[in-house]
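Final report, closing paragraph on structural work. Over the funding period we assembled a curated collection of sequence-structure pairs, and we close with a single example.
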Amino acid sequence: MQLRPRQRDFVQRCIDALNSRGNTLGIAPTGAGKTVMLSSVAKKLGGRVLVLQHRDELVAQNRSTFRAVAPDVDTDLYTAGRKRWSPGVTFGMVQTLCRKDNLESMPKLDLLVIDEAHHVAAASYQNIINHARSVNPKLKLFGVTATPQRGDGKALLAAFSNISDVITLGELISSGFLVKPRFFVIDCDIRGDLANVKMTANDFDMDQVSRIMDKQAVNERVIQEWKDRAGDRKTVIFCSTVSHATHVMEGFIAAGIACDLVHGDLPDSVRRSVLLKFEKGKIQVLVNVAVLTEGWDCQDVSCVMLLRPCSYKGTMIQMIGRGLRKVDPARYPGVVKSDCIVMDFGYSLLTHGSIESEPTVGQEREAMSREKNCEGCGILIPAGVKICPVCGHEHESDDGEREPRKPLEDFVMTEIHLMELSPYRWQDMFDGAVTMANGIDAWACLVDHDGTWYAVGGRGATSVNLLNQSQDKLQALASADDFLREHGNKDAAQKTKRWLSQPASEKQLSMLGLAGGMIFGMTKYLACCLITWKINEPRIQRAILK
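Its predicted structure, as stored:
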């Protein structure tokens, strides 16, 4: 399994921190490929490894992914059903390992990996970490999570002294690894009431939220807005309480929509049965209460509804992230998804701001190579991070150590700036492995192949040329954009042209073999780029490989 360029950066930064400090926390949202990256870290460091999870589904998922990343490494399980230590990598359940008799069977570990590491402050995790360190004081501790912020803001400091890398959701969207969200904040005239809701230890008082939001008028508005904006889409809804969720579910069923509910009090077998029916398309709308915020993957979800406020931005991002994954055509034949509708009835987006406005720290390579201590909690974080992922402290744009201003000739344009200045729309495709722009009379694309970016341009039916190759994507992009500026039709393909954002035509869908399928967010321009790629792919491959 080949890592994407951004994933390779994440893995290397985490390994560097583990080797120099003995522990680190890596932060990446849903869809970044956390399991692939933690597996790569474990493979590269080698030795005897324990990967710790808190749910059965995560144990199976992580082991399966690790086998794809490192098929030659021995693995085993330490769970309630099977207690075996592998000489390579063992995937264990926290609830099983934290028992004293099971802890005593633990061999000397070289690396302890904690998935969903925001749980690490719990006594069960601390007991396992302390015992592993007593067996091997040089143990390396690696955590990955999408939601590092906890109620006390500092609980993660009990295990981790530093954050080695932060991948943002906005970064994954702009890079094409996730689909773009389309935000709608629906005002039901309850914002003032929600603003007065009290905080509990970790979140808003959801009983109080329910008394405000679980009203017939609001629930009817929810269903009508959904019908108007997303009635053909597979949808996940986040509610405040089980009673609230039940009433929302009953409203959808009364409207003739196949709908069901999952929550934490359901038996595991019932919850798994409902999730399976949703996965298979027997249910269109799935309502939940605090169940689907982590460790759940259903790629064809293309609408997310927030029927509750979120006190933490991380929680909001986790919920929205349920609908941003791209679909695997082998897993979901006939389904195409290039966007996700997000309908917010709890005003969280107004409180926390759009997820796309976050700083793209992964593209600030110089800032990511430097570090600073958070003024709020003290943890060591990359200098490019403006908001501490652990405690939420907002840092100034500069960390206080101002460097001499560089002369103008040393200025390096970022990839984002170059794309903004280009007269053409650069379209990410195939999980970011290809970036293409179509100028009607000519086209150009960037292809990531074995860690090198290849710029390829074409004119007419047969003229395809290699323009540049570099490990620096920006250099390749500049060459491709120069080619397109010279040979493309700016009048017809200007990125501000209205036709670019119109829905794809039936003829385009037919050419792509998508006619008759479920198509979400496929524009004429995206279809144009995909068709151009389909027609020219053999010639592009020859240009790259010759």
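The mean pLDDT is 85. The two ends are 24 Å apart (CA to CA). We thank the funder for supporting this effort.
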